[in-house]
């Protein structure tokens, strides 16, 4: 069921506030909600929240036979169905336009940008490879589900560690975590996604990380996924209000700065979590 | 490097469609037909203040090198259709036709890179030949970067190997209504190809405008002959 569109006073209030560069939640136009991460007991279990938007990501790996055309590569699948739990807007079985966009974007950001090295997932060529499955559970939607999901996904992949395996001849031995330390996935780069919202009035400045209401009332979204090394992985502006060339390039510059901050934040959080896991043996 | 492939446009009538266009960019061949504005098939889709745009894309199984059938529910095709829809929503003056629907059917016959650009350019032309009021043309072009050189209008082989960008420009204001890039590219390189592609879209605009003009001219000429008396024909 589509929820009723925001009321006229709500809409006018938001637009007039935005014109003065004020946002309803007190943020600056180009300020993101600081993400918080909650790491689970298990490795590869991360709950990421951007304000009230929450996404749970979980990674698991199992051994499978590789696809015959790519015997040296492991596979990664992303399961991301938005359940009605996130918001009443979503229905099971019938993907909305937004869901299609999120699913495709996740696929592009996490899988097609080669964030995870697939060849390192090979155990025995043509026989055994790792199949990494990333499952995303969308817990609550308070705007900008996409950025939150991308962030949760990449952090979960970085957090995950697979059991160590040993190959002698044709024999594959999997070592229990108690026996040998599990190994992290080989990750080439960490892309972060940033979404900007535009409004029908051209004088209103664009906002980053739109809230639910801002997203509903926006006249166009631009999503930029990039890593701290200033490489754009995905840039997507699908229709919406037309923008000048320089406007878009300015957004890219903003995203570059944000990606660096985000990269540091994620690294610190992961390190902290990892430090908390070490048990001293005396 | 900056050379575009040959563009061929046919705006002839196709069946019952109100407007149609066949466009080829090199070997990419797309057929677009537009119906409407007409009453919506599904009542639930009507909007009280503007027309609804419905886009359906089908890709022929024989259009690529390896024969592959894509179902209508394919996520990529759904995204493709949603992209085209949201590109044209702000350009078509939907406010003039409340409670109606404009159907855009896109049939991909042959693909050799630059599929999105062909679809967008074809849709612009088909909407125009259907006489649907629009704010401006929407001209799309793809670009890529080979090591450090920007390239334009990529073929499938090039698309597979180099980072590629598709942009759609509204030539009158030089504003960009669509940008998509799905491969890794450094920010500085991106800026370069982005600027080159914006220029190229203007060139494509000339081609499209010429085709529309030629079509209108033949239509006007045939209208004249129809209204003339038999004796006047010789003049």
What this model shows, in words?
The complex is a heterodimer of chains A (282) and B (235). Chain A is α+β, with helices and mostly antiparallel strands and 282 residues long. Chain A has helices at residues 8-19, 97-112, 145-159, 212-217, 245-277, and strands at 35-39, 45-50, 53-64, 75-79, 122-124, 128-140, 161-162, 165-168, 171-174, 183-184, 192-198, 207-208, 220-226, 231-237. In chain A, helix 2 (97-112) packs parallel to helix 3 (145-159). Chain A is elongated. Chain B has a single domain (7-222), classed as GHMP Kinase, N-terminal domain (Ribosomal Protein S5, domain 2, 2-Layer Sandwich), CATH 3.30.230.70. Helix content of chain B is 32%, strand content 29%. Chain B is built from four helices and ten strands; from the N terminus they run ββββαβαββαβββα. The longest helix of chain B has 41 residues, at 187-227. The model of chain B has no long low-confidence stretch (mean pLDDT 88). Strand 14 of chain A pairs antiparallel with strand 10 of chain B, so a sheet runs across the interface. Chain A: GO terms for molecular function: mRNA 3'-UTR AU-rich region binding. Chain A: Belongs to the RNase PH family. Chain A: Residues 31-163, 190-256 form the Exoribonuclease phosphorolytic domain.
């Amino acid at each position: 069921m589509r929820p009723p569109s925001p009321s006229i006073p709500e809409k006018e209030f938001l637009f007039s506030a935005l014109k003065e560069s004020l946002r309803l939640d007190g943020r600056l136009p180009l300020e993101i909600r600081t993400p918080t991460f909650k790491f689970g007991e298990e490795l590869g279990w991360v709950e990421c929240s951007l304000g009230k938007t929450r996404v749970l990501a979980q990674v698991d790996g199992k051994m499978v036979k590789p696809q015959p055309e790519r015997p040296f590569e492991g596979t990664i699948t992303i399961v991301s169905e938005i359940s009605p739990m996130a918001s009443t807007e979503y229905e099971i079985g019938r993907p909305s336009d937004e869901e299609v966009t999120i699913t495709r974007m996740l696929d592009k950001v996490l899988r097609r940008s080669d964030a995870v090295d697939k060849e390192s997932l090979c155990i025995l060529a043509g026989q055994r490879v790792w199949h990494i499955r990333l499952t995303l559970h969308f817990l609550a939607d308070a705007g900008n589900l996409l950025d939150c999901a991308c962030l949760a996904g990449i952090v979960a992949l970085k957090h995950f560690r697979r059991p160590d395996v040993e190959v002698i001849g044709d024999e594959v031995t999997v070592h229990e975590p108690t026996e040998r330390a599990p190994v992290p996935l080989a990750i080439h780069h960490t892309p972060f996604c940033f979404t900007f919202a535009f409004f029908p009035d051209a004088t209103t400045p664009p906002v980053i990380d739109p809230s639910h209401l801002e997203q509903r009332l926006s006249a166009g979204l631009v999503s930029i996924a990039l890593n701290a090394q200033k490489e754009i992985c995905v840039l997507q502006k699908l229709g919406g209000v037309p923008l000048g060339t320089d406007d878009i390039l300015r957004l890219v510059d903003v995203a570059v700065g944000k990606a660096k901050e985000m990269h540091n934040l994620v690294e610190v959080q992961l390190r902290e979590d990892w430090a908390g896991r070490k048990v001293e043996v005396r | 490097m900056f050379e575009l492939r040959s563009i061929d446009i046919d705006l002839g009538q196709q069946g019952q469609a109100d407007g149609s266009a066949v466009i080829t960019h090199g070997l990419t061949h797309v057929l677009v037909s537009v119906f409407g504005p007409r009453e919506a098939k599904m009542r639930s889709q009507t909007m009280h203040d503007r027309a609804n745009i419905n886009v359906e894309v089908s890709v022929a199984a024989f259009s690529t090198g390896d024969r592959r059938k894509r179902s209508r529910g394919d996520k990529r095709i759904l995204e493709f259709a949603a992209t085209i829809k949201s590109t044209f929503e702000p350009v078509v003056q939907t406010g003039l036709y409340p409670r109606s629907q404009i159907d855009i059917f896109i049939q991909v016959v042959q693909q050799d890179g630059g599929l999105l650009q062909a679809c967008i350019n074809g849709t612009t032309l088909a909407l125009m030949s259907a006489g649907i009021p629009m704010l401006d043309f929407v001209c799309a072009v793809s670009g890529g970067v080979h090591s450090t050189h920007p390239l334009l209008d990529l073929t499938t082989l090039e698309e597979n190997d180099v980072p590629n960008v598709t942009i759609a420009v509204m030539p009158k204001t030089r504003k960009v209504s669509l940008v998509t890039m799905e491969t890794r590219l450094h920010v500085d390189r991106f800026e370069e190809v982005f600027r080159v592609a914006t220029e190229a879209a203007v060139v494509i605009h000339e081609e499209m405008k010429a085709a529309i003009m030629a079509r209108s001219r033949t239509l006007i000429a045939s209208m004249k002959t129809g209204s003339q008396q038999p004796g006047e024909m010789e003049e």
